[in-house]
C-alpha cells in the first residue's frame, strides 16, 4: 500500500494537488487515478465535458466524492452506471475497487469516445455501452445487475424507472445525489414503491479530503412493478 503522505504535496503536471486521502482510497492504483484527473482537467475541459470552474475541485468534488459510493457496493458485484458522462462515478469506482464488474451507459458519442480513450489508456476492464438507460436491449445483461449507480442524471423517480429493468431482484439502485436527496426521497416515495423498491434510505458517505456524497439506496424487492420490461439484447464492448 502506498504511504498516505507520499502524495500530500504532489501536484501533477496538469491538475490540482493530490489530496493525501487519495492514496488510501486508490491504493496501488493511485497513479491511474492521478492520470484520470489529469485527463479530466485537460481533454475533459477542452471537449466541454467538465466546466473550467471544476478544475481545482476535480479530486474532492468529483473523483473522491464518486469513489465514496464504493462503501455501498459488495465484493465482485456487477454494476451498471447510467449517464456516466466523463466517467463519474464509474471510473473512480473501477479504480478504487478492481473487484467490481462495471458497465458504463452513456448516449452521447463525444462522451463515449472520451470514456473509451481513458479506459484504454488506464488499461482497466470496464465496458462502455452507447445508449439510453431506458432503451430496451441496450445492455445484454439487463435484469442481472447487482447495482445500478447514477450521478447527476435525472430526478429520482425517473432514475428508478430506468434502473429497475436493469436490476436483478434483490439488486439495489444507488443514486449519488446532492443536498436534495432527502427531499427527492419524500417526493418520489410513492413512485418508487410502485416500482417495488424497498428499504429506501439516504446514506451520507465521505472519502477523506472529499465533499460528502448522499446516496439514495433502494432494493428491488420484486419484478412486479415493471412486469414484462426485462429485456435481453446486444450491448457492445467499448474496448
Ligand atoms: C449532468 S451529466 C452527469 C455525468 C456524470 N454522471 C457526472 O456526474 O459527472 C448527465 C449525463 O447523463 C447522460 N444521460 C442523459 N439521459 C440519459 C439516459 N436516458 N440514459 C443514460 N444516460 C443519460 C447525459 O448524456 C450526460 O452524460
UniProtKB/TrEMBL annotation:
Domain of life, source organism: Bacteria
Keyword ATP-binding assigned: no
SUPFAM superfamilies: S-adenosyl-L-methionine-dependent methyltransferases
Segments forming a coiled coil: none
InterPro entries noted in UniProt: rRNA_ssu_MeTfrase_G (IPR003682), SAM-dependent_MTases_sf (IPR029063)
Keyword annotations: Cytoplasm, Methyltransferase, rRNA processing, S-adenosyl-L-methionine, Transferase
Gene3D superfamilies (alphabetical): Vaccinia Virus protein VP39
Location relative to the cell: Cytoplasm
Binding site for S-adenosyl-L-methionine: 83, 88, 133-134, 151
Example of a GO MF term: rRNA (guanine-N7-)-methyltransferase activity
UniProt GO cellular component terms: cytosol
Enzyme Commission code: 2.1.1.-
Function: Specifically methylates the N7 position of a guanine in 16S rRNA.
Family the UniProt entry places it in: Belongs to the methyltransferase superfamily. RNA methyltransferase RsmG family.
Name used for this protein in its record: Ribosomal RNA small subunit methyltransferase G
